[in-house]
Backbone:
């Protein structure tokens, strides 16, 4: 009987110690983002800003080629994302007014007035994705992906 009590006490101590061993690091809840209804998107509008942080006609471009739109979707779809946990993480989106950051809208019509999906691509390679249920930017990429940003610019012929 004493052996059972000792084993149970040891297990309890081990469980308590493993629960305390994170040194303040909490596990980030991540998931793979899946852009819904990708087959319906035929148009892509990308908007950047000039050196003064202002969007103009020269810093926007409409892509009307469904094949390029689908290539773009394949490039960013299934990115590993998280919900920002801190104000600092969420405030990164303020970089949108910096030259080299972009807002991308996918749409099923040229006017972007029906089915749409938005993605923010920041200069540092951070991606923000829309929550389809809330229609707001809820998810951000876990890792900065500047190579993906450069691939996107090359694919879409973005020079601004």
Residues:
């Amino acid at each position: 009987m004493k052996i059972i009590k000792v084993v149970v006490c040891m297990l309890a101590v081990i469980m308590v110690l493993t629960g305390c061993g994170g040194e303040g690091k909490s596990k980030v809840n991540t998931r793979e983002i899946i852009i819904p209804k990708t087959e319906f998107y035929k148009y892509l509008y990308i908007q950047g800003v000039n050196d003064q942080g202002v969007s103009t006609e020269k810093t926007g471009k409409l892509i009307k080629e469904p094949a390029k739109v689908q290539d773009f979707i394949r490039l960013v779809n299934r990115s590993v994302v998280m919900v920002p946990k801190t104000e600092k993480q969420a405030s990164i989106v303020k970089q949108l007014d910096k030259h080299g950051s972009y807002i991308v809208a996918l749409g099923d019509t040229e006017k972007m007035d029906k089915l749409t999906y938005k993605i923010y691509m920041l200069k540092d390679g951070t991606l923000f994705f829309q929550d389809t249920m809330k229609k707001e930017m809820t998810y951000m990429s876990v890792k900065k992906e500047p190579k993906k940003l450069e691939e996107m610019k090359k694919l879409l012929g973005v020079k601004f």
